Amino acid sequence: MGAGRKTETINADSTLPASEHGCISARNLPKNDLAGAIFGCKHSTMEECLVKQLFGLPSSHISYVRNIKPGLPIFLFNYSDRKLHGLYEAASHGKMHLDAYAWSDGGAERTAFPAQVRIRMSQQCKPLAEKEFKKVIEDNYHTPQHFWFELDHSQTRSLIAMFKPLAGTIVPAVYPPSQSNSFPALPAPKRKLKKDAPATSSVSKNKFAALFSEDIEAGDG
User: What are the residue boundaries of the DCD domain, all occurrences included (predicted)?
Assistant: First the structure.
């Protein structure tokens, strides 16, 4: 908010393809079937996404963004080079206007991407090219270039397994547990990692894998 900001009506998303709007923007998975979600960015907006730890989509996506709860696996698709980035997880419930002026030229206007979620990195991994991840979410493609961002359990599990950690990275420190989060908290990492030691994503992937355990009951947010 604040004095001096411009106000205008946003009629269309200025960075996502027009085919992502309206009735085809959602796969409409039932809440308990939503096991992961993809958000979009471009080279020009990716840095702000990561610095603010905030991902957003046009308002037409709120039908499923509102079903995101802390701990849900999240991925970031860069339209500029068509690569999928991970591994992230939701650090908040999905809501409208967590930051009403994000990705809007320094906060001069209201955001075109108000369906938002706060995120945190679970493991820094090498991004996946579209030819790699497309086979996993092939059923989500509604045009040759555009796909639904909602992921079911099988798709989420397969995508997580495809990501490989970048050399020399470690799992971040313990996250505060959430009452609505069915994932266990990450254990504290070792303080030092030898330069020649291979990175491992086993802790992170085991954490995400808890979502698919038969011992965990799916619950409402």
Answer: 32-165
Quote the distance between the C-alpha of residue 98 and its chain's center. Answer: 15
Q: What is Dmax (Cα atoms) for the chain?
A: 54
Cβ contacts of 160 within 8 Å, gap of 6 or more: 73, 86, 87, 205, 208, 209
Residue 53 token pair: 């730890």
Do the Cβ atoms of 73 and 38 come closer than 8 Å?
A: no
CB 86 within 8 A of CB 198: no
Delineate the domains of the chain, giving CATH numbers in brackets.
Answer: 27-164 (3.10.590.10)
- Six-digit token pair at 26? 């959602």
In this predicted structure, what is the pLDDT of residue 168? 63
Q: Give pLDDT tens digits for 33-78.
A: 999 999 999 999 999 999 999 999 999 999 999 999 999 999 999 9
Long-range contacts of range 175-179, CB-CB < 8 Å, 24 or more positions apart?
175/91, 175/120, 178/69, 178/70, 178/71
Q: What is the pTM of this model?
A: 0.68
Q: Which residues touch 59 (CB under 8 Å, ≥6 apart)? A: 96, 114, 115
Instruction: Give the pairing type, strands 150-151 and 36-41.
Output: antiparallel
Computed on alpha carbons and rounded to an integer, the radius of gyration of the chain in Å comes to 17
